């Protein structure tokens, strides 16, 4: 008989989850991080499964709901994240059982698929439990030395920008993209406000404005103690989408230079429009699994409807830094 018991966790378990996070990652989570991430999401509360040993939480995993556009249809999809085990209880099959419990909960609410962004070590476990490895998530990077060169060569632009330290009401009337042939996050002001409330990072919003001062594009970036500026979202809503997007990236690069950052980064999966765009902006990447600028994440999917192969076709997805929860 197993020494471990399993159940779905709730807000009442936040203290125990904090303790497990500290033991598993040797890092004390910031105040309200777990409550923000699991229980403040406008798409709904996370599904969190826990493993207990003699009344102590020793393992957990979570599925966070996200509103997504699935070939233009709005659908709640869950992202699997934060699979953690107490160091004294590793190699006991806890992760496999937590994974199974969360998949069973997913079946109960009739979700179509789950996705995750994880390490390649975690992918081995996921694939052995019926998940599909989709792609590496590449880390594009432009160091400050190249930023300075590109800005010396850049022609002066007459584009108008504004910079904001919060989403506030700036994007309330913005026409967010809904790509009919893709699976991607369904963005909204409420989602972006929640997403940028992550206490581990600081965020800024750059807005591009047309001649009527109406926002026709935006770039969202995060910064932290590593002195890197990370582009996590980028959109343009006009006939000159590429020109506006390049102008926004150039403006973010100027901030990186002015404020002494080591460079600018952005995550993308191969074959997507954003991947091609970052290459066109002369960003660097390492396609191998080691060395500087290596691919840092795997993208995996569990498809409850195996007959629908469009879900596990990586070319149908658009993954950005906004998808990654930055834990």
Q: Which fold does the CATH topology of the largest domain refer to?
A: Aminopeptidase
Number of domains: 2
User: What is the general shape?
Assistant: globular
**Which consecutive residue ranges, at least 5 long each, have pLDDT under 50?**
none
The arrangement of helices and strands along the chain is: EHHEEEHEHEHEEHEEEHEHE
Query: Which percent bin holds the helix content?
Result: 25-40%
What proportion of the residues form beta strands (DSSP E)? 25-35%
- Main sheet? 13 strands, mixed
Count of helices? 8
Short structural description:
The chain has 327 residues and is α+β, with helices and mostly antiparallel strands. The protein contains eight helices and 13 strands. It is globular, with a radius of gyration of 20 Å.
Description:
With 327 residues, the protein is of the alpha+beta class. It folds into two domains: 4-111, Gcn5-related N-acetyltransferase (GNAT) (Aminopeptidase, 3-Layer(aba) Sandwich), CATH 3.40.630; 138-280, Gcn5-related N-acetyltransferase (GNAT) (Aminopeptidase). The chain has helices at 14-25, 33-39, 94-108, 120-128, 144-153, 189-195, 241-258, 273-280; strands spanning 4-8, 47-53, 56-70, 73-85, 113-118, 132-143, 160-164, 183-185, 202-209, 215-223, 228-236, 263-269, 297-303. Strands 1, 2, 3, 4, 5, 6, 7, 8, 9, 10, 11, 12 and 13 form a 13-stranded mixed β-sheet that branches.
